[in-house]
């Protein structure tokens, strides 16, 4: 193996853990890591109840562990889509297998030729320029009576995750799903509060997931983070998980 190939392989295995990218087998045993991982794994466990014998699309699949969970739960096939090339390459290396495929594509521009029985999309629409168009596109991807399982952080999160473009309430998400052609079957809100001490320790473990000290002190985003840390005592990040069905036209 030449040096460039070796370097590429090593780079894949040294992907940084961030708010946007979890790598379960490299997560620490600190309480913040356990809370965040439990939240993410729990969503895929909930989705696993719907996938037996089904064709599944996992939009914003990240490092691929969730797509593998869906396949192991009995999905006939799983396609994972993520916008990050290095993350998709990591998923291919560690999780690609017969009937699991990973594709690098923008969630708002992805196209598919055949319908899926189940689509899952966790923590995605808050990143998108046009969430309404995205949900309409998801509806087109689904077979008749197809299932859509979506999670969204509730409340203001744009200060601690600068990649978030929108903040949603529970009612806004439920109304948006109904507006775009879905029947909401059930939903739950998973609570997650990360304390100041947990977040400071997380910063030490995963520095690339945190703003710089300059940003904390001299930007509006930083002031908001400091308010949450020292006035509120941490970050409150409840997550809405919704199961909806495509309404037949």
Automatic annotation (TrEMBL):
<dbReference type="GO" id="GO:0032259">
    <property type="term" value="P:methylation"/>
</dbReference>
<dbReference type="Pfam" id="PF13489">
    <property type="entry name" value="Methyltransf_23"/>
</dbReference>
<dbReference type="GO" id="GO:0008168">
    <property type="term" value="F:methyltransferase activity"/>
</dbReference>
<protein>
    <submittedName>
        <fullName>Class I SAM-dependent methyltransferase</fullName>
    </submittedName>
</protein>
<dbReference type="InterPro" id="IPR029063">
    <property type="entry name" value="SAM-dependent_MTases_sf"/>
</dbReference>
<keyword id="KW-0489">Methyltransferase</keyword>
<keyword id="KW-0808">Transferase</keyword>
